[in-house]
Amino acid sequence: MDTIDPTTGKKIKSYPEFSLSKINGILNRAEKSFQAWRGLSFKERGEKMKKAAALLRGNKDRYARLMAQEMGKPLPQGRGEIEKCALVCDFYAGQAETYLAAEKIITEARESFVMYEPLGIVLAVMPWNFPFWQVFRCAAPTLMAGNGIVLKHASNVCGCAQAIEQIFKEAGFPPNLFSNVFLANDKVKDLIAHPLVRAVSLTGSTGAGRSVGSAAGWAIKKTVLELGGSDPYIILDDADLDSAVETCVYSRLINGGQSCIAAKRFIVMDSVFKEFEEKFVAKMKSQRMGPPLDEGVDLGPMARHDLRDQLHKQVRQTVRQGAKLLTGGAVPKSAGAFYPPTVLTNLKKNMTAYQEELFGPVAGLIRVTSEEQAVEVANATVFGLGSAVFSGTVERARRVALRLEAGCCFINDFVRSDPRLPFGGIKQSGYGRELAVAGIREFTNAKTVYIK
Ligand code: NAP
Question: Are residues 41 and 181 in the same domain?
Answer without folding.
Answer: yes
